[in-house]
Each structure stands twice: as structure tokens, then as C-alpha cells.
Amino acid sequence: MSQKETIISLLQTNRIMTQGELAEAIYGDKLHTPNIYSALMSLVNSSTVTRAGADPAKYSLHGIPVSAVPDKRNEKKRRYRDVSGDLISNESIEEASRLVEETDNYGPENELITRCLQKFPDNKDPDVVAMKIGLIDITNSTHLSQHKSLISMDELCRIIVAISDIDTRIAAGDPDVVNEIARSNRRINLFSFASKYCCYHNRNLYGMDDYSILDTVLKDYLPRYFSDITKGQIQRWQDGFEYKKYNDYITRKLDECGITTPNRKRKFDHFIWYKNR
């Protein structure tokens, strides 16, 4: 899919977006905003896309007035739930994790991932890695297919296989593996996918609990539970490939909350997701 086609597809789905939001959806971060300027202006000049406003300008497909389309960022802010009544305790995250495991989709899918990783534990064969990437991508909605113009499945498989001692390092909870996968070909930031790929191998295959997942729900809601973190700080860790700082922050907050239940990082992720999905 060309860059223009990707922009059109994103606007069909989201109806209204800024240039920065389009860049983040395509590349995984807003640092690549200038990279889509030429394609975006070409669509504007051909009247395929409408541009309105400034600081930032907003874009929509032609025929959909920007002024008539709700600003989804404001809608999202209004939809944030009040978390003040959520108690973070051993009992509450155990309960939330149990409820997640009992859902019709997550429970069976988690068992499927476990069986697959146990049958194909190593990350040495690109074909095997491809199957594991696909399974984790589909079950966790990481949307890798949206970024095919930036990285192919074949390329990502070979990047993972080429990481030195990857299996030993994931088993030991090495945070740098997340960064190495996330950097990929340096055209896209796969931070969220990388955290999940390492987490599932570490937890479901090796029975450890060394990795904290980062996804949109965590990024949106951690600052609502803890006053010493912001979404901007989490984004800076993601943009700078500083997974250890993010992972260490989760560890510290769980310590402060007195969370001692086994597999607490994985269960805390379940807790945040279940409460705010």
C-alpha cells in the first residue's frame, strides 16, 4: 500500500486527523511528521483530502467538512473513566486477572499462545518466528499489517532471528531485547509489539514475569492512577527506546502499592485493561 493509500485508509477509519496523528499511525511516532507532508499535500491539491484550520491543521476526505466532524481527541478525553474508586491491591488485581482469563476470547487465546510457544520455543528460524509474530499480532491487535509499507513480515522475522542470544536473554528478562526489536529497521517504532513479544515468551514459555506490556490503554490510564507519570513521559520513553525506564517504573509502583502476588506485572496489565477497556 502506498503512502497516499495508507493516508486515505486512515481517514476513512478515523474521519478526521492531524498530520501528526497520521504520522504516528503510519510510523509509530510523530517524529516522522515531515515524512508524509508531500503525499498529504498531493492529496489536498487533488481535492481528495480537505484541509482546514491551523495549529494544527485537520484533514478529512473530500466531501466531509472538517468543521462537521467531531474532534475525536476531545471525545476520547470525555470518555476517560473515573479511576478514583479503583483499589490497586493483591486481591483486586487477582480478581481482574481471573475475570480476564475467563473471557471467551482472552483465555483460549492465551492458552493457544502458550501451546504454540512451547512447541516452537526458539527464535532461530524465520518461518517459525513468522508464525509467532502473526499469532501475537492478531490476538493482541498490534496492527502490524498497517505498516507493511515500512516493514515487511520477512524483514521483521530476520531482524528478530539476528538478535544475539535472543532466547537466553528473553528468558533472563533482558529489557534491551525489547529495544532491539522495537528499533527494527529504524523506519518504524515497534515498541508496543516488542514489549508483547518478549512478555509472552518470558511469561508463557519460561514462567517468568520480567516484562511489562505497553499499549494504548496503559499509556492512557497509568497517569490517571499515578500522579508522578504523564502520557508525555511514557511517549518519550517509547520514542527514545528506553524500555528499561518504563519497566522499572512499573516495578517501582507495584512495590509502592505492596503488590506481592505472583506474576504481578502480567496481572497488573490485566487489571488496567479490564477496568478501562
Structure commentary:
This protein has 277 residues and is mainly alpha-helical. The protein folds into two domains: 3-79, Winged helix-like DNA-binding domain superfamily/Winged helix DNA-binding domain (Arc Repressor Mutant, subunit A); 90-276, no CATH class. 59% of the residues lie in helices and 4% in strands. It has 15 helices and three strands. It has a three-stranded antiparallel sheet with strand order 1-3-2. Strand 2 (49-52) and strand 3 (58-61) form a beta hairpin. It is globular and about 55 Å long. The two termini are 30 Å apart.
Quick overview:
With 277 residues, the protein is mainly α. The protein has 15 helices and three strands. It has two domains: 77 residues, Winged helix-like DNA-binding domain superfamily/Winged helix DNA-binding domain (Arc Repressor Mutant, subunit A, Orthogonal Bundle), CATH 1.10.10; 187 residues, no CATH class.
Find the structural class using helix and strand composition. Answer: mainly alpha
> Overall 3D geometry?
globular
Strand line-up in the sheet with most strands: 1-3-2
The helix tally amounts to: 15
- The separation of the N and C termini measures 30 Å
Strand content: under 5%
The figure for the number of domains is: 2
Helix percent reads: 55-70%
What is the strand tally?
3
Residue-averaged pLDDT, rounded?
A: 91
Alpha-carbon Rg, integer? 20 Å
